[in-house]
Design goal:
Order of helices and strands: EEEEEEHEHEEHEEHEEEE
Distance between the termini: 12 Å
Radius of gyration: 24 Å
Structural class: alpha/beta
Largest sheet: 5 strands, mixed
Number of helices: 4
Oligomer: single chain
Mean pLDDT: 75
Strand content: 25-35%
Length: about 250
């Protein structure tokens, strides 16, 4: 949970590299027969409310005639009506085109009348199940690879402070490391749209850091069930003179 970052987190140059694949709503192929219920990819949206691991199940039924979808909450939470409504709102965002397309191989199977219609339209008009989760706090949907940042940023430890081209207010600390904070401003879609640094590094260092941070995505966030933008504080530490150290730091998560 990112709120813990205010108390300090792992240094960027020793961050464990991992990726959490962002969930997609776009069409993919699947094979279906008859009226079997099909599960959609799990939808995750974070919240300021504590859902205590509750999982919402939404039934989505597309209408072939109207080309619209109907949604039904199968298991409303008796204590979190706000998130019940938010789960339904997320389910209603689906359009027919965003539901998985079907692949019926008529060469190998005998299709009934309904299946013959589906074969022509490429859409399945049975029932879909959508699972929705609302973890508390701010969470990454995907991270970037920070493994090269130490090498890229260490040269900034040795800039000539008297140089007129060095406009950085960032200086090595008592441990000869560069330490700064990045305030990440995130929109309702989970994308970082602005970054503020303190102390302010020079423009080249900002360019390198921005290129990495803008690859990051967060899960979308709701505050009391309403989509909201947010900001998080990300401490950054660059180890100076790393070649003179044992250079065997272990990854920290």
């Amino acid at each position: 949970m990112l709120k813990k970052y205010r108390h300090g987190i792992a240094r960027l140059f020793i961050l464990t590299v991992f990726y959490l694949t962002a969930l997609s709503l776009y069409a993919e192929q699947m094979s279906v027969l008859g009226h079997t219920r099909k599960d959609l990819p799990i939808k995750i949206e974070t919240s300021n409310l504590d859902s205590k691991g509750y999982v919402w199940q939404i039934e989505i039924t597309p209408n072939q005639n109207s080309q619209q979808i109907q949604v039904k909450l199968l298991n409303p939470n008796s204590e979190l009506s706000i998130l019940n409504n938010r789960a339904l709102a997320l389910a209603r965002q689906f359009t027919l085109a965003q539901l998985p397309q079907i692949n019926l191989d008529s060469k190998n199977i005998t299709l009934n009348q309904d299946e013959q219609k589906m074969q022509k339209t490429h859409f399945y008009y049975g029932k879909y199940t959508l699972i929705i989760k609302f973890p508390k706090g701010f969470h990454y949907a995907s991270k970037t690879d920070f493994s090269n940042l130490q090498q890229q940023l260490e040269p900034f430890c040795h800039l000539d402070e008297s140089s007129t081209t060095n406009q950085s207010k960032l200086k090595p600390n008592a441990q000869s490391n560069l330490q700064l904070n990045a305030q990440l401003f995130v929109n309702t879609e989970g994308s970082i749209y602005q970054i503020k640094y303190s102390p302010l590094p020079n423009s080249k260092m900002i360019e390198i850091l921005n290129a990495q941070f803008k690859k990051i995505r967060f899960y979308s966030y709701n505050k009391y069930g309403t989509p909201a933008s947010f900001s998080v504080l990300q401490p950054i530490m660059i180890q100076c003179n790393s070649k003179n150290t044992n250079n065997d730091s272990n990854p920290v998560t």
